[in-house]
Amino acid sequence: MKAVLEKTPREQWESFHCETVRATSYHATWHFHPEYQLTLVLESRGHRMVGDNITRLGPGDLVLVGANLPHVWHQENRGGTGGSVHAIIVRFLDTFLGIEFLERPELEPVRALLRRAARGLHITGRTRDIVADAMHRLAAARGLVRIRELLAILDVLATSREVRPIASVGFVPKFSTDDQERMQRVFRYIDRHLTDEIDRTCAAAEAHLSPGAFSRFFKLRTGRTLPEYVNALRIGRACEMLSNDKWKVASIAMECGFANLANFNRHFRKITDLSPREYRRRFRENAG
Q1: In 24-145, beta strands by DSSP E
Q2: Over the Cα atoms of the chain, what is R_g?
């Protein structure tokens, strides 16, 4: 996975970086950095990519990204009107308290957690609530309290069973800045035309490649073919729309770029293991 190396901003007074983002987008491209990153989404609609995984993004999403794992959070701009982004992001090196700190025997569970974070970790349930509260306190704190809150978060995550890997087992990132702008042009093209037919030749033209070379280029850098990537984004959008009863399933299929209902149902079941109606029913049950 080729991505751009990003330098994490850090003030002289802090051993790790914490920021609260309030904007119309995340202002980030497909990137990686040596720091671990903990991101709590408070308000956002779009998708996130971690390694070779693409997932619908919404309020309450909490993820720990491992060191040098490519990722991007993308705010959806539907119909030319962007929504708002509100998130708390914490980035830290495993040496933020010194090279030997994590070597202490009491910290073996934390070392194991950070090894697991190499694939990214999605945090859910009661653990998510506890960590989210701690992140709010951390964002408002200064001095030793910040360190205390981060260590408490790592302790909770290290012992939780509500933490699941995100990227696939076989995902091995490859780092380069050479293709960054090329990939961003392709991503922007897909985003603009997600509800239309995505033409491989047009996508290849954005990357200044022949269609055959583009297919190899895209698969190497995303872990997916172009149709697989596009369908994952479309089904993610469909899942959000299915949570609203005002949308009929057939209308959702059209709004998400599928030519017919049968094709939509087939791709939806392939990705979620449920039919759209089963997904809506389960959503209602869980919400109610």
Answers
A1: 31-32, 36-43, 46-50, 53-57, 62-65, 71-75, 77-78, 81-82, 85-92, 121-123
A2: 20
Contact indicator for 134, 149 with CB cutoff of 8 Å: yes
Q: How far is CA 123 from CA 63, 102, 132, in A?
A: 6, 22, 10
CATH number 2.60.120.280 is the correct assignment for the domain at 4-165:
yes
CATH class of this structure's domain 180-287: mainly alpha
Q: Which amino acid is at 155?
A: D
The whole-angstrom separation of Cα 68 and Cα 131 is 23
Quick one: average pLDDT of 205-214? 92
**Can you tell me the distance from the alpha carbon of 71 to that of 120, in angstroms, rounded to the nearest whole number?**
9
Helix H or strand E segment including 277: helix 276-287
Whether the CA torsion 174, 177, 182, 185 is positive or negative: it is: positive
243-275: per-residue pLDDT in tens?
778 889 999 999 899 989 999 999 988 888 889
> Which residue stretches of 95-225 are H helix?
108-116, 125-140, 144-159, 180-192, 200-206, 211-222
Instruction: Read off the amino acid at residue 144.
Output: L
Q: Alpha carbon 163 to chain centroid distance?
A: 15
Which residue in the block uniquely carries the two structure tokens 């309450």? 60
d(CA 75, CA 25): 5
Instruction: Decide if pLDDT at 81 tops 80.
Output: no
Helix (H) or strand (E) holding 266: helix 261-272
- The predicted structure's pLDDT at residue 241: 84
Domain ranges of the chain: 4-165, 180-287
Residue 121 has pLDDT above 90, yes or no: yes
